[in-house]
Design brief:
By secondary structure, the chain is an alpha/beta fold. The chain has helices at 48-56, 78-83, 101-107, 116-129, 131-135, 146-158, 176-191, 203-209, 227-230, 234-242, and strands at 10-19, 22-32, 37-41, 61-68, 71-72, 86-89, 164-168, 195-199, 212-217, 220-226. It has 10 helices and 10 strands. The longest helix has 16 residues, at 176-191.
Length: 251
Amino acid sequence: MPHDASRPLLEVKRLSSGYGSVPVLCEVDLAVRPAEIVALVGSNGAGKSTLLKAISGLLPATTGSIILDGTEIAGCKPDKIVNLGLLQVAEGRRLFREQSVAHNLDLGFYGAGLDRQAERRRLDEVLTMFPMLAEKRRALAGALSGGQQQMLAIAQALMRAPRLIMLDEPSLGLAPIVVDQVFDLLTRLRDSGCAVLLVEQLVERAMEIAGHAYVLQDGRIVASGSAAELHNSAAITRAYMAGRGPGGSRS
């Protein structure tokens, strides 16, 4: 069934979550529309990664709702959420480093239930987007540069043709020229119709490509609006200054 353009593709409502008895997120509201890049910014420890994990089903929701294209996914297992078209690329480029690039890409199909012909078509589409990976299909993932590994991690997620992809610090540890390549890729994904929820410490760069943005501070959304409105706003300054002081262990 096609998506109803009158509603967000992803809608998070009053979501609270954490680790065991340790609360991290408190009544978070957030929305992502189709073919939109949404930036989620805040200092280290604000709860950004925790929010992505809760949306992905890796952490339970204490209270609240997570709706993906009209389907409630709070409480769903991660594999069901993936099958509904939402994928996360975690921080740290988590790949099978002793396996080839080709094998890592094939693992992106795990559980998809596609026939070989459909898999080949999708692989050709993804390799067209990542010609560097096409050249290095036989290379071990662990032998790639940091930027190449980041591209492989994103490409692996794209093998499932997601409707929404969430990325946690994709620029971390990358050279500036590679950061440019990553951000260019994200805009191309948006232009192709894939929605993007982006957690990124390079706030200036994130705001340049995002249409909407949310500022997370101490597990709460303290500001939201168009990226242009929030760019260089006092809310962002306060959120990052607050993160420099003593605080908890949110992530």
